[in-house]
């Protein structure tokens, strides 16, 4: 039996073949998934990972697609677009509430809902695109004041590559800056219980507004982009090469690339670490632009930039 028929046998008609992915990625690049499946429940996830493991089929997990750049016209194997949604109060005390939140819930919805209910924990994530699952995988954050999505997690339910489900406490995830253990284990975050502190709604709203205003002033908005493309350089590198800033955007700006465009991909005029898709950008144009950034920064500063986005 060929791969398509194997997948159809286990996953049914929800399995799609040669699916255009541009609308699932905030960069909107033209690319296709060879096979596409949207798990909406734990059962869907178990079925999918079990057949993938049994027949050794390549796969990629996506959430809101806001931290992913695809550098090829076709993604081989199965793209699993997580759509597992949950929102349930587990326990309520005088000053806090424990809530189960699904990994497929959009962060925008979680931020709005928790502020409205007077629950503190996610208010600084106003404007963070994507899903809870992607945010836990990346331990996404707001830096001023520093607030990580993983901060309020009590326990998380995950599924491993063989399709086995387990519950782990917060410590397991080893959260740090832009890091959770899931990046090494490749386990999928299914849902988690978060402890959110009760707080004045007006004040939560003010915090969120402050973040939103700052984003509007400093980042491109209303355009197709994948967020910061490269990681800022380390303190060690900054010292070694005697550079005035650790910001990747600063280095890209200083080599004169702000506003430079190849095909439909353009380095943002607002923030040089953002790449915008101003038309119908394809993988080959993005690859050319990324190569250009890497080689110019390497030539002038001797620094090898590393990706912040996940590249497929
Ligand atoms: C305009 C803009 C602003 C941004 N601002 C910020 C910011 O302020 N702070 C910040 O930290 N980031 C920011 N980002 C980056 C990005 O939005 C975050 O990293 C986001 O949390 C990614 O979530 P996602 O669901 O879109 O993940 P995706 O992009 O879909 O996936 C990212 C990675 O997570 C993995 N993944 C997704 N879901 C799961 C899951 N359930 N279990 C395991 N792995 C999973 C994927 O395999 C992939 O490797 C920004 C991006 C954009 C476009």
Rg (C-alpha, Å): 20 Å
Distance between the termini: 27 Å
CATH class annotation of the largest domain: Alpha Beta
* CATH architectural label of the largest domain: 2-Layer Sandwich
Task: Please count the beta strands (DSSP E, at least 2 residues each).
Answer: 18
Work out the helix count.
9
In this entry the ligands are: flavin-adenine dinucleotide
Largest sheet: 6 strands, antiparallel
Average of pLDDT: 96
Q: Tell me the domain tally.
A: 3
DSSP helix fraction: 25-40%
Uncertain segments: none
Question: What proportion of the residues form beta strands (DSSP E)?
Answer: 25-35%
The computed structural class is alpha+beta
Query: What shape does the CA trace take?
Result: globular
At the third CATH level, what is the topology name of the largest domain?
Answer: Uridine Diphospho-n-acetylenolpyruvylglucosamine Reductase, domain 3
SSE pattern? HEEHEEEEEHEHEEEEHEHEHHEEEHE
GO molecular function: FAD binding; UDP-N-acetylmuramate dehydrogenase activity
Function: Cell wall formation.
Cofactor: FAD
EC number: 1.3.1.98
């Amino acid at each position: 039996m060929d791969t398509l028929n194997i997948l159809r046998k286990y996953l049914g008609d929800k399995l799609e073949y040669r699916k255009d992915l541009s609308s699932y990625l905030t960069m909107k690049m033209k690319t296709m998934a060879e096979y596409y499946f949207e798990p909406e429940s734990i059962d869907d996830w178990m079925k999918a990972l079990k057949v993938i493991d049994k027949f050794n089929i390549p796969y990629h997990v996506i959430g809101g697609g806001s931290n992913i750049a695809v550098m090829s016209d076709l993604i081989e194997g199965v793209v699993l677009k997580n759509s597992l949604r949950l929102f349930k109060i587990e326990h309520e005390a005088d000053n806090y509430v424990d809530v189960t939140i699904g990994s497929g819930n959009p962060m925008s919805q979680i931020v709005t809902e928790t502020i409205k209910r007077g629950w503190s924990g996610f208010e600084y994530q106003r404007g963070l695109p994507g899903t809870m699952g992607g945010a836990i995988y990346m331990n996404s954050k707001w830096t001023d004041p520093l607030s990580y999505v993983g901060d309020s997690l009590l326990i998380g339910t995950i599924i491993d590559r063989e399709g086995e489900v387990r519950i782990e406490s917060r410590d397991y995830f080893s959260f740090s800056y832009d890091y959770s253990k899931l990046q090494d284990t490749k386990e999928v975050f299914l849902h988690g219980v978060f402890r959110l502190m009760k707080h004045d709604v007006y004040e939560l709203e003010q915090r969120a507004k402050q973040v939103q205003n700052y984003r509007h002033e400093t980042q491109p908005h209303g355009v197709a982009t994948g967020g910061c493309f490269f990681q800022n350089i380390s303190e060690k590198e900054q010292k070694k090469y005697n550079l005035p800033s650790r910001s990747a955007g600063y280095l890209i700006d200083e080599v004169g690339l702000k506003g430079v465009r190849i095909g439909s991909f353009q380095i943002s005029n607002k923030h040089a670490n953002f790449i915008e898709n101003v038309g119908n950008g394809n993988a080959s144009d993005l690859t050319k632009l990324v190569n250009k950034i890497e080689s110019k920064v390497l030539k002038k500063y001797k620094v090898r930039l590393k990706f912040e986005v996940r590249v497929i």
